[in-house]
Amino acid sequence: QVQLVESGGGLVQAGGSARLSCAASGSMFSINGMGWHRQAPGKQRELVAGVSNGGDTNYADFVKGRFTIFRDNAKNTVYLQMNSLKPEDTAVYFCAVGISTRGSSYSTYWGQGIQVTVSS
After folding, report:
1. What's the pLDDT tens digit per position in 65-114?
2. Is 38 helix (H, G, I), strand (E, B) or coil?
3. CA-CA distance, 34 to 23, in Å (whole number)?
4. Residue 117 exposed, middle or buried by CB count within 10 Å (0-12, 13-18, 19+)
5. Which of 10, 35, 36 has its CA nearest to residue 90?
């Protein structure tokens, strides 16, 4: 069984910073891509950033230059460093991780979601 545990959310003032982390644990054979998505009230879930197993990153335009995604493979953990936060960044953030549990195909596992609220 695989678990993703997120931490680091909360209330932040506009212009401030926060760091999210997502640790994967359980019966894992290997991990592929890792990423963060978010969902604001009344909106669809959207990709924020992703990082490949080789360290290549991609970002949504609305976070480029403000957010940084990185991973620690030894800890099976992905991080999202969020700087210059804006009220429109307020959302529930979800980590998503591609995990192979039996050495074959990868499945996407999702974290439980963590609230980030940016006050103006």
Report:
1. 999 999 999 999 999 999 999 999 999 999 999 999 886 799 999 999 99
2. strand
3. 11
4. middle
5. 10
Q: How far apart are CA 96 and CA 91, in angstroms?
A: 16
Please state the rounded mean pLDDT for residues 110-120.
Answer: 97
Contact 113, 92 (CB under 8 A): yes
pLDDT at 1: 87
Proportion of the chain above pLDDT 70, given as a percent: 99
Cα 84 from Cα 12, distance rounded (Å): 10
pLDDT at 104: 77
Which two tokens mark 48? 């924020």
Extended strands (E) in the chain = 2-7, 10-13, 18-26, 30-39, 46-51, 57-59, 67-72, 77-82, 91-100, 107-110, 114-119
Distance CA 2, CA 76 (A): 12
What is the number of residues in the chain? 120
Q: Which amino acid is at 65?
A: G
CA nearest neighbour of 60 among 50, 70, 74 = 50
